[in-house]
Amino acid sequence: MTPIIATALALRAKIDETDPASFTKSISNVAISTVDGISYPRTWDLEDPDTEVGFLNANEVTSLIQHEGFRFWGNRTCSDDPRFAFETTTRTAQFLLDTIIAGCFPFIDKPLTPILARDIIDSINAKLRQFFAKGWLIGASCWYNEEINNPQDLSQGIMYIDYDYTPVPTLENLFLNQRITDRYLVDFSKLIAQTA
Q: In angstroms, how far is CA 135 from the centroid of its own chain?
């Protein structure tokens, strides 16, 4: 029997391999073909979070459910920082840092001039705009921060570039408000005419 953590890691690797925006998708709610059953079933309901799986999710524990196949259910990390509560938020931070560092490689060991600084910032902003256009970020920008760059550091080849971003949040809970209304009866006669 394969430990479920190995299945979770394999699923994470599969998503990463097949989806260029994998950092925006958690392992939650993805069908798993390699699971045959659940050793310790827990109650779960899509419309009611007051279940055993709902309780575990509320306490940052991802569970396995059976609904149209087997799948993990839960998006949370164990971070104390609410900004990194979602798996996807943490992965977005890692992806952006790795991408920006790799993109800055050609600039290293070039003469540190204002033109080089502008080229670095323009390059990073162009990449951030691409991610925004693809829907991988809600927004992002990069800039030269005068407050933390000083002549002493610059003279030693040290420069700081700031960037910020808003990751795409995960839709974890969807609440539907149902209402009965008479307003569609106002044009009842027109509805009759349309069906004739």
A: 11
Domain residue spans of the chain: 4-73, 84-167
Q: In the chain, what is the straight-line distance between the N-terminal and C-terminal CA atoms, in Å?
A: 62
Alpha carbon distance 26, 171 (integer Å): 11
Can you tell me the distance from the alpha carbon of 179 to that of 167, in angstroms, rounded to the nearest whole number? 33
- CA distances, 67 to each of 53, 70, 73 (Å): 13, 6, 10
| Both tokens assigned to 21 | 């925006």
Distances (CA, A) of 16 to 13, 20, 25, 181: 5, 7, 9, 46
Digit-coded pLDDT (tens) for 48-101: 889 999 999 989 899 999 999 999 999 998 889 999 999 999 999 999 999 999
Asked whether the predicted pLDDT for residue 196 surpasses 70, the reply is: no
**Mean per-residue pLDDT for 137-156?**
97
